[in-house]
Amino acid sequence: MARGLCIVGVNHRTAPVALRERLAFPASGLPAALAELKAVPGVQEAAIVSTCNRVEVVTGTSVPAAMVAAGVESFFVRVRELERSAFAPHLYVHHGRDAVRHLFRVAASLDSMVVGEPQILGQMKNQYVAAAAAGTSGPVLHKAFHRAFTVAKRVRTETAIASKSVSVASVAAALTGTIFETLEDKTVMLVGAGKMSQLVARHLQARGSGDIMVTTRTFDHAVALAREFGGLPVPFERLAEYLKHADIVIGSAGAVDHLVGPQLVQDVLRARKQRPMFFIDLAVPRNFDPAINDLDNVYVYDMDDLARTSADNTGEREREAARAEAIVDDEVERFGRWLAGLDVVPTIVALREKVETIRKAELEKALASLQDAAPRHRALLDALTSSIVNKILHAPLASLKREGAADDPDLAASVRRLFDLRVQERSTTNGSGESE
């Protein structure tokens, strides 16, 4: 059986977070786990992809997938001290081209909880480096992972799959860019301490926003949260006074009535010399009177607005995902041809060497019986026999290169049996570690 990929694991679709936590591997635990994996029967190469959403064992192997799956199950039982029944029903197994496609889709964030999110690629790179450092990766995983990284790059540069935010918090933060050219000199005010508003504030900080003010009904809470953000706590009763300093106002306070109305905002705008304000209302009931959206230089988005924008962006990501899948399919075909070449190239070399050895031996016998043959006659016979051999081998070698690396991966094995070839596994990397 030819060498290929086999992936055994769980992800956010097949296993609850409680199980994924128990199967997960911290970076510090990877070397020991990889050493254990290399001892699993049939596993010639191994890497572990472990994130909050998946735990996958990626192997290079030349044995049936069922044998690898059984070995990985035993590995989990041994190193994670779990009963097989606790996790086995949640496992999936991908092998051959399906495994290659799965690895490429994971790297390109097509298999993520949020399609297009970039974090997975960096995690995979780090975990492949760990496998290389542990000596458990070989030519197949080297090529597969580096090809996966190339796929991810192509998807990001050739599609717009990650250009639109889809979570409510990230959508809210991204919308500020439609109003303000930069956030560096913009002040954010949190009204209330809701989890969603805190998440929006973190997104804004990641985008380079300036100062943060925090006001809640309980001043101690405002102090604690302001300390966490490196911001300024504001007494709740002084909200109106400090509002004039805020460019972006995020509301998540529990309230029966609106906390901010049109008259207050009009007064604030005069004090701000009509500089724009952006209100993000995450509260239900709403903190900000929708009527303030009618004022010039004021922009208000509530939860329904954000949800609609998120849905639109999700639809766009899905359309771009279809283009990304086509890139994955193209790269899977390319990798398949390379993988088939692991068998084809050594077979071609072995066939040439065997026939050439026979040619030279027979030529030497013939020349020995022609002791008085002139040097030019010897050269002529050498060229003649070499030409005959090349013409005979041309068709089968061309067929091997064509069908053996694409449509008929078993052709190389048939040639080895027919010609009784002993093929040695050859290196598929050059001195720099990059694939040829």
Task: Compose a concise summary of this entry.
By secondary structure, the chain is of the alpha/beta class. It contains 15 helices and ten strands. It folds into three domains: 159 residues, Glutamyl-tRNA reductase, N-terminal domain (Beta Polymerase, domain 2, 2-Layer Sandwich), CATH 3.30.460; 144 residues, 3-Layer(aba) Sandwich (Rossmann fold), CATH 3.40.50.720; 82 residues, no CATH class.
Counting DSSP E segments of at least 2 residues, the number of strands comes to 10
Give the C-alpha Rg. 32 Å
Largest sheet: 6 strands, parallel
Put simply, the count of helices is 15
End-to-end distance: 23 Å
Q: How much strand?
A: 5-15%
The gross shape turns out to be elongated
Strand order of the largest sheet: 7-6-5-8-9-10
Query: What is the helix fraction of residues, given as a range?
Result: 40-55%
Structure, explained:
This protein folds into three domains: 4-162, Glutamyl-tRNA reductase, N-terminal domain (Beta Polymerase, domain 2), CATH 3.30.460.30; 168-311, NAD(P)-binding Rossmann-like Domain (Rossmann fold), CATH 3.40.50.720; 337-418, no CATH class. It is elongated. The chain is of the alpha/beta class and 436 residues long. It has 15 helices and ten strands. It has helices at 17-23, 30-38, 65-80, 84-87, 97-107, 119-134, 139-158, 168-175, 195-206, 219-229, 239-242, 262-271, 303-369, 375-402, 411-418, and strands at 4-11, 43-50, 54-61, 92-95, 188-191, 212-215, 232-233, 248-251, 277-281, 298-302. Strand 5, helix 9 (195-206) and strand 6 form a beta-alpha-beta unit. Helix 2 (30-38) packs across helix 6, helix 8 (168-175) packs across helix 9 (195-206) and helix 13 packs antiparallel against helix 14 (375-402). The longest helix is centred in the last third of the chain and has 67 residues, at 303-369. The strands form two sheets. It has a six-stranded parallel beta sheet with strand order 7-6-5-8-9-10. The chain has a four-stranded antiparallel beta sheet with strand order 2-3-1-4, with helices on both faces.
